Amino acid sequence: MDSLGDKILNGDRRALARAITLVESGRADHRAQASELLAHLAKAGRQSLRVGLSGTPGVGKSTFIESFGMMLIEQGLRVAVLAVDPSSTRSGGSILGDKTRMERLSREKNAFIRPSPSQSHLGGVARRTREAIALCEAAGFDVVLIETVGVGQSETVVSEMSDLFLLLLAPAGGDELQGVKRGIMEMADMILVNKADGDLKATATRTCADYAGALRLLRKRPQDPEGFPKAMTVSAVEKHGLDQAWDEMTTLSGWRRENGHWDGNRAAQARFWFDQEVRYALLSRLDTPTARAEMDRLGAAVGAGNLSPTAAADRMLSILATH
Ligand SMILES: Nc1nc2c(ncn2[C@@H]2O[C@H](COP(=O)(O)OP(=O)(O)OP(=O)(O)O)[C@@H](O)[C@H]2O)c(=O)[nH]1
Ligand SMILES: [Mg+2]
Hints:
By secondary structure, this protein is α/β, with parallel strands linked by helices. It has three domains: 1-43, Single alpha-helices involved in coiled-coils or other helix-helix interfaces; 46-259, P-loop containing nucleotide triphosphate hydrolases (Rossmann fold, 3-Layer(aba) Sandwich), CATH 3.40.50; 288-322, no CATH class. Helices cover 52% and strands 11% of the residues. It is built from 13 helices and seven strands. The protein has a seven-stranded parallel beta sheet with strand order 3-2-4-1-5-6-7, with helices on both faces. Helix 8 (182-187) links the parallel strand 5 (164-169) and strand 6 (190-193). The longest helix is centred in the C-terminal third of the chain and has 24 residues, at 261-284. It is globular, with a radius of gyration of 22 Å. It starts with a helix and ends with a helix. Guanosine-5'-triphosphate (GTP) is lined by residues 55, 57-63, 95, 98, 101, 149, 194-195, 197-198, 235-237.
């Protein structure tokens, strides 16, 4: 594990890919090796800028990552791209299956693109992604982009592992503004209205102004300097606004570093994931054949009126505790 670790620290991409396969494995011996490896790499203390990116299907996430990633590469930065795909039922089982949209980036030696594994359980995907992020940081990537499609809980998962969380939106008619849930708006550090080009440009500008107004109505967050969260227009296809977006991102992350919010946020995220891991582990105890059989047996007794739901739950919990 130490030699694999050293290769990763030297930026060896094949070693990185192998290590991610290791953290994705469910086998107990692989889990043990992965923990050892991650502990070894953590000592290096390297940090990337972790950027979460969410948006509905077709809004242009992949196109944006290709253009934005290439811009960063041209500035001499190293860029890793990971995905959180809770559904994994889509074609190819991965939101990064469409490598065609990241054709240039996927050929760059300073880029590393890893599709989401085909796990349906969000807890498993979340852990694997967090560990993959840690591996990419150890491998010396400057920026780690974490893409997720805006459905269900995946935005929360991604924002809880990001230093900056971007929401990509499409130009829309006035009424559609309501479509973005308040909770998602509150997570966003920046809103990027994509496709601000051609016929859509004027609509994009209006949409952006609407979102800027909506952002101003939200409660002020301590982790934001004046003017943030910010809404901007971009065009991933025409590569407009990408450098401005990057400027704003570095301004924001720089301010957060100087004001203790960067470390504070990472510490809060670590506590959040500790809590989640305990919850997932407790829930997974219900997922054994014995536990399911006990649940069925007690459930039947509750259904027949022979046992109250509370008494049955107490009995189930004591069974779990002794296993
Ligand atoms: N006009 C215009 N079209 C764009 C822009 N960015 C993306 N598109 C188009 O929007 C469509 C969807 O782009 P993708 O990058 O695949 O979108 P996505 O968000 O990754 O979609 P999913 O992976 O399905 O969630 C494609 O036809 C793109 O060419 C843009 O800046 N301007
Ligand atoms: Mg995509």
